[in-house]
Amino acid sequence: MASSPAPRGRIRDVLPTLYLGPFSPGPLNSLTDVSGVLVSTQSIILPKTTTHHEINTGVTTILPRADWFNSACYAGIFSFNGSGELTGSHWLTEAGLLNSPIAITNSFAIGQCYSGIYQYAVEKHKDSEGLANWFLMPVVAETYDGYMNDIGAMPVQSSHMVHGIQTASSERVKEGNTGGGTGMLCHGHKGGTGSASRVIDGVVVTDGESKSTKYTVGVLVQANYGKLSNLMIGGIPIGRLIKKQNGGFDTMEVRGPVKDGSIIIIIATDAPLHPT
Questions:
Q1: Structure confidence by residue, pLDDT tens digits, 51-100
Q2: Measuring CA to CA, which residue among 245, 226, 224, 55 is closest to residue 156?
Q3: N or C: which end of the chain has fewer CB within 10 A?
Q4: Where are the alpha helices (DSSP H) in the chain?
């Protein structure tokens, strides 16, 4: 009887002597090491049927804090280039305030997630007459998963967004083939959702007196980008080595060329930063 395969380890467990920078990870090595941040990942994985091809997609829900509706947090954005959609970005730039969950999904599911945030907020925060008399700009980001997913089947519904808000937790973020990263590619191979954190030294000044302290920086990535030849892990050119093994082929493609794609990165910190 064949034994079941061992679970895939994180790189620090597999290669404990690998140097990954001068800062130590937080207890979970996850975005949720930043106090108050809550995350949920939902995957939708369905086999091919008479009505759709294989479906591999999902939604990642990030709550900057439990009471995101009444208590905004400072936030800013940076766009390197490309056409990736981030709803609510104008208000983030204008006000520097985030009063919304952050949803990350596929390119065709932006509307459903946007509606789902409103659906949750209206049900939770309508007034005594059943009216929504407040302002809210949902924040939804996307990357394209049409290579591994029947994106036109549009299986993501507003109910997934509502469920994501309701179930977000402070547990370690599920990584890999999960959430909005379920159908993503990275450097010509399977991409997905990744998360990590680092603890950094800081100083706090009270009444003119300096005191050392610690701050946490957490990151969540939806990875859907890059050529194989550019893949490096811990400073090692893994992609070039794989390409050499593959006889010079840049990707393990079956259905033709794949574009470089895109990446969404969410950074959170408990350091006292201003949006500017």
A1: 999 999 999 999 999 999 999 999 999 998 878 899 999 999 999 999 99
A2: 55
A3: N
A4: 11-14, 89-95, 110-125, 158-167, 238-245
pTM passes above 0.90: yes
Angle subtended at Cα 31 by Cα 27 and Cα 35, rounded to the nearest 5 degrees: 70
Nearest to 109 by CA among 49, 42, 58, 166: 58
State how far the Cα of 46 lies from the Cα of 26, in Å rounded to an integer.
35
CB-CB neighbours of 130 under 10 Å: 7
Distance CA 35, CA 92 (A): 22
Task: For residue 88, give Cα distances in angstroms to 83, 161, 204, 231.
Answer: 15, 16, 33, 32
Instruction: Give which of 226, 244, 222 is closest to 188, Cα–Cα.
Output: 226
Structure token pair of residue 73: 């947090």
Closest residue by Cα to residue 31 from 180, 140, 223, 169: 169
Give the burial string for 36-75 (b: 16+ CB within 10 Å, else e): bbbbbbbbbeeeeeeeeeebbbbbbbbbbbeebbeebeeb
User: How does pLDDT run across 127-162, given as a tens digit for each residue?
Assistant: 999 999 999 999 999 999 999 999 999 999 999 999
Q: Which long-range contacts (CB under 8 A, 24 or more apart) does 123-127 make?
A: 124/69, 125/69
Terminal Cα-to-Cα distance of the chain (whole angstroms): 60
Give the other-Cβ count within 10 Å of 14's Cβ: 9
The H or E element spanning position 21 is none
Residue 87 to residue 90: CA distance in whole angstroms: 8
Contacts of 142 (CB under 8 A, 6+ apart): 84, 85, 104, 105, 106, 107, 109, 110, 180, 264
